[in-house]
Amino acid sequence: MITSYRTVVGQSTGQYKEKGSKFLSFCYPVSDENEINAHLTALRKEYHDARHHCYAWVLGADKLRHRANDDGEPNHSAGDPILGQIRSKGLTNILIVVVRYFGGVKLGVGGLISAYKSAAEEALNTAIIEEKMITTTLKLLFPYESTSEIMRVVKEFDLKILEQTFQEACYMLLEGSILNTPRTIERLNLLKRVGVKLEIES
Length: 202
Known about the structure:
Blueprint: E1 4-9, E2 12-18, E3 21-29, H1 33-46, E4 52-59, E5 65-69, H2 79-88, E6 94-101, H3 108-125, E7 128-133, E8 135-143, H4 147-156, E9 160-165, E10 169-177, H5 181-189, E11 197-200
Antiparallel strand pairs: 1-7, 2-3, 3-6, 4-5, 4-6, 8-10, 8-11, 9-10
Helix pairs in contact: 2-3
């Protein structure tokens, strides 16, 4: 079971020059393709005079969703080297874009691979990388008199309270490590006898 993943926190940038060509690299944390497309659109607009906007991204804790794009460079000379840098650090939920300004001298496929790899590496060198735990969200409905028992479970499994409402009928939205989810659910299900209703959100 995958219980955590490594990703970047916030945007980072890098730069690499080779024989007059300038490679600007941009690294972003992303959670879906809509975010990816928004970043690409913004960069293409800001650097509209650049010849190429090459990129690679990886999504999901299992890292199964990914894409590399050469944007007009020779096949596998740009997107794949960028993707290789992402994979070398074991990252996911990440987008790296490398914008190239052509300097008048052709670099050849080998030169391009090295340049795009180096540019992506520069952006990652300044990135903040963190490990995130995969979590499950639990929604609880319970009578007020069951509050103390619920709070014991919250403490026992180190659950994070995202939302809570205490009235005659109480509501709580909890988040906890996926590793503890089966035991947490088992423990909460024991409280059905005191009117606790449990829904698994994700």
